[in-house]
Amino acid sequence: MQCGMIGLGRMGANMARRLMRGGHEVVVTNRSPEPIEQLTAEGASGASTVSELVERLKAPRAIWVSLPAGEVTENTLTQLAPLLTRGDVIVESGNSFYQDTIRRAEWLEQKGLALLDQGTSGGIWGLEIGYCLMIGGSREPFERLDPAFKTLAPPDGYLHTGPSGSGHFVKMVHNGIEYGMLQAYGEGFEILHASDFKALDLRAISHLWNQGSVVRSWLLELAERAFEKEPDLSSIRGYVEDSGEGRWAVLEALAKDVPAPVLALSLLMRFRSRQEDSFGAKAIAALRNEFGGHAVKPKN
Description:
Layout: E1 2-6, H1 10-21, E2 25-29, H2 33-41, E3 45-46, H3 50-56, E4 62-65, H4 71-80, E5 89-92, H5 98-109, E6 114-121, H6 126-129, E7 132-136, H7 139-144, H8 146-152, E8 158-162, H9 166-194, H10 202-209, H11 218-229, H12 245-255, H13 261-273, H14 279-292
Parallel strand pairs: 1-2, 1-4, 2-3, 4-5, 5-6, 7-8
Antiparallel strand pairs: 6-7
Helix pairs in contact: 9-12, 9-13, 9-14, 10-11, 11-14
């Protein structure tokens, strides 16, 4: 099928590549021209503007918007909507706040347009492994775009979660859980690193724990990779960013009177990481770089 992709960052560019590998025709655009040129060289059709991208797609169109949450996505949807025709579908694959998604879906529906919110997990590994997709919105456009979702995801790797906003809501909670898991691993590795057993091999321990242990996980595979590259993580700061979803998950827990101490404290520990260095925070920063390509800050 024909697909448009607006935004060619870490996620958007690789989703476009995976769609092309699956035999789909992909038209791409981006604020800066370099990613367009690169994807065009790989077989995509490049468009220098959003309006040109729309012109190159046949109605009913399917257009992915893969941009940071907030003003950038809001402005892009505002620019895109008047260019589209009734029956076109926009797939918002960033990490937007789910209540913003509900509002946008209602606004677009009045114009005869459908919005699917695609919560997307997989990071920089999604190109090869596939993306875990949590998709909210009306059933009909979801089913219409099923061939593309099937290409983007691994087997059993995508789900229609319910009405508009539900995909981004499920992804928000997913990321809150991720915060807690990363914090637990970071603290555990810091205890190991600080112990009197100075010869402990954190790479080997990461590998060991993945052999039938109850704490085995893909994150431990990434920990093994990170510690193999740099056992002491001495070249990076333990500075851990948050992109919003963890905060929103904690706020949702507060609004619904749900006790979520692990999620809340893991969020607060990210704030703590920006004030003073710690090995545990370094471990989290290294893991985020491994699974998502998130930038690490070099140690001064």
